[in-house]
Amino acid sequence: MRPSIQVGVVLLGAAFTIAPATVQAQAARISQIIEEPNPLQLYSGGSQGYLGVLVGDVDSDSANKLRLKEVRGALIRLIDHDAPAAQALRVNDVLLEVNGQVVESAEAFGRMMRELPPGRKISLLVSRDGRTQTISVQLADRKKMESDAEQRLPLPRSCPLLWRFGFPPSHCRP
C-alpha cells in the first residue's frame, strides 16, 4: 500500500487524498510559477521606458476645474523629480495624447508607456491651465536611474557586517 497524505480541507463536502509525489510535483510547479516573470508584465524588447509620473483618471469635476473640453486623459498627480517628466511636466497637467494616440484614461496611458523602450523620444499633447501644448520627452531606463541613484547614496553602516555573513543587501554595493 502506498503512503498518502490526507489533506484536512473539506471543500463543498469533497475530501482530497494526495500522494507524496503529487504534492512534490505541485510544490515544484508553484515555485516555478512564483519565480518566473510574468510575460504580460514585460516589454518584449527588454526594459520599459520611464517617464516618472503617477497618473489618475479625469472625472467631470476635475475636467471642469482644469478647463478641459472632454472628460478624458491621464491627470498627473505626482512627478519623480529625478525622471524625465520633471523637466517638462507639472502636477495637474493632463496627458491627452502620446505620439498622436489618444489617451482615454490613466490605465490606457499606462499601457501605452509599457510598450515604449528606454531612450525613445515621445511627443505628448498636454493640457495645462486650459491650453494644450505639445511636449517632447526622452524616456529613461528606470533600472539604470535607480542604480545611478543608489551609487550616489552613502552606504549604511550595517553593510560591511552583513557582507561578512554572506548577506549582501540590495542597498549595499561591493
Give a concise summary.
This protein folds into two domains: 5-36; 49-142, PDZ domain (Pdz3 Domain, Roll), CATH 2.30.42.10. 30% of the residues lie in helices and 24% in strands. The protein has helices at 20-35, 60-65, 85-88, 106-114, 142-152, 159-164, and strands spanning 5-6, 17-18, 49-50, 53-57, 74-79, 94-98, 101-102, 121-128, 131-138, 140-141.
Describe the 3D structure.
The protein has 174 residues and is of the alpha+beta class. It folds into two domains: 32 residues; 94 residues, PDZ domain (Pdz3 Domain, Roll). It is 30% helix and 24% strand. It contains six helices and ten strands; from the N terminus they run ββαββαβαββαβββαα. The strands form three sheets. Strands 4, 5, 6, 7, 8 and 9 form a six-stranded antiparallel beta sheet that branches. It has a two-stranded antiparallel sheet with strand order 1-2. Strands 3-10 form a two-stranded antiparallel sheet. β8 and β9 form a beta hairpin. The longest helix has 16 residues. About 10% of the residues have low confidence.
